[in-house]
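@here heads up, posting the sequence + SMILES for the flavin-adenine dinucleotide run so it's all in one place. Ping me if the SMILES looks off, I pulled it from an old spreadsheet.
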Amino acid sequence: MPKYKAPVDDVMFLLNDVFHVERYSNLPGFSDASPDTVEAVLGEAAKLSEDVLTPLNRVGDVEGCTRNPDGSVTTPKGFKDAYRQIIDGGWIGISTPAEFGGQGLPMFMTQQVNEFLSSGNLAFAMYPGLTQGAIAAILVHGTPEQKAAYLPKMVAGTWTGTMNLTEPHCGTDLGMIRTKAAKQGDGSYKITGTKIFISAGEHDLSENIVHLVLARIEGAPEGTRGISLFIVPKFFPKADGSAGARNAVACGSLEEKMGIHGNATCVMNYDGATGWLIAEENRGLHAMFTMMNEARLAVGLQGLAISEVAYQNAVAYAQERLQGRSISGVKFKDKPADPIIVHPDVRRTLMTIKSFNEAARALVVWTALASDLHHRSPDEKTRQTAEDHMGLLTPVIKGVLTDVGFANTVMAQQMFGGHGYIAENGMEQFVRDARITMMYEGANGIQALDLVGRKLPKDGGRALQAFFAEVQGFIKDHGVTDAMKTFVEPLGKSLGHLQQATMWFMQNALAKPDNAGAGSTDYMHLFGLVALGYMWGRMAVAAQEKIKDSAVAERMKAKLITGRFFMERMLPETGAHLARIQAGADSMMELAVEAF
Ligand SMILES: Cc1cc2nc3c(=O)[nH]c(=O)nc-3n(C[C@H](O)[C@H](O)[C@H](O)COP(=O)(O)OP(=O)(O)OC[C@H]3O[C@@H](n4cnc5c(N)ncnc54)[C@H](O)[C@@H]3O)c2cc1C
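bot reply: prediction finished. Complex structure tokens:
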């Protein structure tokens, strides 16, 4: 069975030595997040994931969720007890304001805890994860009464949350939503329609489920400009705060699916269910974006999380599995064969995953810190820069960390040979579970379009220019030292590729938008590689400083070698992405539809 060890040390290195979070101790919540506190909290999350969630991962996969004849849904054995520990540990509200029962700690702590929980059990971690997203939307867009009625329960975890966008005929194109909302005399709305693929739509983990539902108010304009967002609770909140009478919303069926079997994917029927508007009428999509952006970062994190656990198990197997002899001479004479980790091709595979994971984790921490600055800094300019960073990096994190995360699970499975294909070793489950991350929360093709079509031109390219300036500044500051040449030179070259690609879009995509669409996925991955390369640059600076400390010298040496591998073997892919972008759309668009 797969094992998991949460990379607490790696996270502490990022927080303390790479990003120096102590710089932000003036921000609300940061003074409570001393290195010792952070390490203790992460240590507890690690234990929860390693000891409780990891053993349940296969149980959830084999057993799945069951819909009972009365429409209720039973989660796999052990999920309820594990969820009790989520409630008891206050894990949902780590970063939520104290006035709603949260701990007000920085967002980077929530992100790291979520990485650990998702590595242990992706399907399980989605229940609290979706609740965090719904909390974020209510916090920003809810009325004071809505916040008071829902947030304390959701932050505590006794009520969970969902997001209801998708309908049978529309997923990406939400402008076609048909679910209707009819205004009632008392200010509430009757919601009628069918939503599909609703994660955690019904289950037995919490006393109540708070659905955030997109619907069209009768008479509203067509398209995305006529969509509103509603809170539709499964049970109406009573004045004393407890769950009251049942609302007219029910799970019609559960989807049978490729992976994440422990998470209930529901068809939700709204039969004149009572809902209350959040945010203004017809501004629902805008409000839902608060939850979607949160969820996109969370899904990117899922890609990393599953890549990490798959990697750890591939390493353990490669250290034990004896096959063949090293081509450079026998390495383990006392054994009938060498462990496969001696073979360069096995190492290529493992290093590919490792060097991605460590940089991806840095990218997540960097962006989580931007989220904290955006929400907590007293300085307007800092808040704006941080918001720009998040807007730009969100599609990159979602798209790149899940595309590559999935590919990494396949590579990790490959390390097991045929033993990776059978269920017993758990590797095929990682592959199946990881696959959905590329699809939900906006399929990755849509993330790439969001990056190229919306995020690049936004505010005259302000966010992109800031990113370029930051990476260029780093190159300038560190390019002169010999020790950093291995990192800075390839980074400079790849940044050049990204700038050329951006320029090419400016010159070739405005008059011919197909050129942007044709190059968008390559651009997203090109951007991701540069961002990850920049993370390696920053980690290398920190590691070179820290290597002087003998207690961590070996770990820092490994960091620098891993970073060098990334710069030599992965970053050069930016050249291929640039070439594909510059090839334009012609050969892609020429075939007639019926010629495919
Ligand atoms: C297990 C699971 C859990 C889910 N959980 C939730 C949930 O909790 N809440 C919720 O609301 N939804 C949920 N979803 C739905 C999910 O978010 C959608 O499936 C996803 O957004 C894609 O929509 P779609 O399936 O309708 O695909 P489509 O929109 O039909 O897209 C099909 C393909 O066409 C591409 N495409 C579509 N339009 C364009 C375009 N304009 N340009 C280029 N390419 C395009 C897409 O990239 C995609 O590859 C879940 C789905 C699954 C399978």
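MO: The mean pLDDT is 97.
MO: One more: Residues 284-320 form the longest helix (37 residues).
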